[in-house]
Structure formats: structure tokens, C-alpha cells
Amino acid sequence: MNVLKKIFDCLLIMKNYLYGFFMKVKTAFYSPSKISRSFWSSRNSKNWDLSSRYPELQDAQTKALIGFFNKNFKDKKIKMLDLGCSDGSSSIFIVKDYLRYGQGLDISSEFIKTANKEAKNNNINVDFSTWDACEEELKITNSFDVVMALGLFTCITEDKVFENIINAISTQVKKGTYLLIKDTLSDTHDTQKVLKNHLYAAKYRFIDQYVKDICDKGFKKLDLKSLYRFPSEPYASYFLIFEKL
Ligand SMILES: C[S@@+](CC[C@H](N)C(=O)[O-])C[C@H]1O[C@@H](n2cnc3c(N)ncnc32)[C@H](O)[C@@H]1O
């Protein structure tokens, strides 16, 4: 019995060692973009939920969204595109009463399945489909009043892809379209960073440069507010409103 237990303990130590080794190799050889896409492709409504991870941030995001729609679209029905929509619960469904039509895009097929089911059950005129921002060009096929990307660009670690998406939005939407963004941004140029471990990767961009990059692509900044500041860190999650010029 004792021998069997020793063999079992040895196998367990070997398994943990090999797992640790594999994760180190994965972190070293996989690009941040690949790690981020692999993380998000395997998310679903059970293993990722903003409200349980950061309740204060979720609350502030909901308030900011409702505040924006109340101010600009009271008693109106509009068309909206949601990029990186997850299962829709923390973005598109929050403002469902304002929607004439909505479209949501996300890399995770599980999120999309849940979102479509929810839309059908509640008779909401929204289409959700999968899209990988790093692999597929963004084609905007409707005349949207609002495009939002809440938390998407933080997951896009490659600046070129971030630029291409902003460019695609800018060249395909009409003048006056609102662009709503939420992202975690860095206070200074020196503290901007790409996070990477074997499971997760993200980029916290420098706020001033980030706003400038978006404005340079043909948008005007209307508002910027901090939703949640990470304790003792030079980063905060911001809600930004732009308008297409
Ligand atoms: C931080 S979550 C935000 C979700 C939701 N918009 C919200 O505000 O709670 C980022 C979302 O972007 C999606 N995403 C990440 N990388 C993506 C990619 N390359 N292409 C499309 N969607 C992506 C994720 O699946 C996830 O739903």
C-alpha cells in the first residue's frame, strides 16, 4: 500500500512539473495575441462574468451606458453594433429598450450561442455572430447610430490590429455615429504594458496616445470618465465617447 502511495505521489509531482514546464514553454513561445485569442475563444457565460469579477466596474459601466442612452436617445429607437459583445449581458442587452436593431460580434462561439438564445427568448431584434478581430476584416453592413467596443481593445495586444479596427469603423460609419469604448488604460507612457502569462494576455495602452490615435482616424472626443481605478496601480478602466466627424 505504502509503495503504491509513493508511486502515486511521484506521478503527481511529475505531472505538476510537466504541466509547469509546458506552461513556461507556452508563455515563452506563444505571442500575446495568440494567448489572448485562445483565452477568449474558450470563455462562456459560466467561466467569465464581469459582474462577479468586478462588481463596482460592472455597476459603473451599466450606469454610464444608461446615462448615455437616456441623454442622447430618449424615446428613440436606434441601430447599434457591439464589438466584443460577450453574451450581451453586460453591454447590448442593458440598452435593449433603445434598439430598433442590434448586431453583436465576438470571438467566443459559446458567448454567441448564449446571446442568440437570450435574444430569441426575449424577442429582441439582435443578431449575434462570431468574429475574430485579429483574423477577419471588420465589415459594417448596416447604417449604425452607435458602435461600441466595451473591453475589446484591451484584449487586442497588437497595435496594428487596434488601428485597423478603428480605421474600419471610421471609413464605414456615417458622420455623427457615436463610438463608445470601455478599456483599461495606463496613466503614463512609461507604465503602458502588455500583460502575458500562459493563460491570459492584454494591453493597457497610454491614455493620451490612445485618445489621440482614435481622434487622428476621424473622431472627436466628447467625454471620458474613469469607471474603476485598480487599487495602487497606474491603471483605470475608462468609458469614452467619440463622435465620427
Ligand atoms: C473584457 S470582455 C468585455 C465583454 C463585454 N463587452 C463587456 O463589456 O462586459 C472582452 C470581449 O472581447 C472579446 N474578444 C477578445 N478578443 C477578441 C477578438 N480577437 N475578436 C473578437 N472578440 C474578441 C471577448 O470574447 C470578450 O467577450
Proportion of helical residues = 40-55%
Shape: globular
**Uncertain segments of ≥5 residues (pLDDT<50)?**
none
Task: State Rg.
Answer: 20 Å
Q: Tell me the CATH architecture of the largest domain.
A: 3-Layer(aba) Sandwich
Identify the CATH class of the largest domain: Alpha Beta
| CATH T-level fold name of the largest domain | Rossmann fold
Order of helices and strands: HHHHEEHEEHHEEEHEE
Return the domain count.
2
Task: Note the gap between the termini.
Answer: 76 Å
- Mean residue pLDDT: 94
Give the full name of the CATH homologous superfamily of the largest domain. Vaccinia Virus protein VP39
How would you sum up the major sheet?
Answer: 9 strands, mixed
Q: What's the total count of β strands?
A: 9
- Give the count of helical stretches: 8
From the helix content, strand content and strand pairing, which structural class follows?
alpha/beta
In this entry the ligands are:
S-adenosylmethionine
Strand content: 25-35%
Key words describing this protein structure:
9 strands, alpha/beta, 8 helices, Rossmann fold, 245 residues, binds S-adenosylmethionine
Concise account of the structure shown:
By secondary structure, the chain is α/β, with parallel strands linked by helices. Helices cover 42% and strands 26% of the residues.
What does it look like?
The protein is an alpha/beta fold and 245 residues long. It folds into two domains: 1-30; 31-244, Vaccinia Virus protein VP39 (Rossmann fold). The chain is 42% helix and 26% strand. The chain has eight helices and nine strands. Strands 1, 2, 3, 4, 5, 6, 7, 8 and 9 form a nine-stranded mixed β-sheet that branches. A hairpin with a 4-residue loop joins strand 6 (193-196) and strand 7 (201-206). The site of S-adenosylmethionine has 22 residues, from helix 2 and helix 6.
